[in-house]
């Protein structure tokens, strides 16, 4: 499968992780300086930087992305 993701070298780098990454999502327009963000559906953490979600430390200790 061709992917447009380009995670950093020290990434988790698993297809399991990518299954939990959703985005980009648009913030509600009523938020000042609204931007896009990405979310891990397994632990609910969000970031405006997609690459953040490829860092193990970004997720909770019990997040499913660690189980691979
Ligand atoms: Zn997570």
Could you characterize what this model shows?
The protein is mainly beta. It has one domain (19-66). Helices cover 9% and strands 19% of the residues. It has one helix and three strands; from the N terminus they run H-E-E-E. It has one helix at residues 15-20; strands spanning 21-26, 36-40, 46-47. A three-stranded antiparallel sheet has the order 1-2-3. The protein starts with 14 loop residues before the first helix and ends in a 21-residue tail after the last strand. Zinc ion (ZN) binds at residues 20, 40, 42-43, 45, 59, 63, 65.
Q: What kind of sheet is the major sheet? A: 3 strands, antiparallel
Give a count of the beta strands, DSSP E runs of length 2 or more: 3
SS strand fraction? 15-25%
Indicate the mean pLDDT.
85
Cofactors, ions and other ligands in the entry:
zinc ion
- Supply Rg: 12 Å
Total domain modules? 1
What is the number of helical segments per DSSP (H or I, 4+ residues)? 1
Strands of the widest sheet, in order across it, are 1-2-3
Decide which structural class fits the backbone: mainly beta
The amount of helix comes to: under 10%
Order of helices and strands: HEEE
């Amino acid at each position: 499968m061709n992917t447009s993701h380009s995670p950093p070298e020290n990434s988790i780098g698993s297809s399991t992780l990518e299954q939990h990454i959703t985005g980009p999502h648009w913030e509600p327009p009523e938020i000042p300086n609204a931007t896009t963000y990405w979310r891990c559906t397994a632990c609910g953490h969000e970031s405006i930087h997609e690459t953040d979600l490829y860092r193990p430390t970004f997720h909770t200790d019990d997040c499913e992305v660690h189980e691979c």
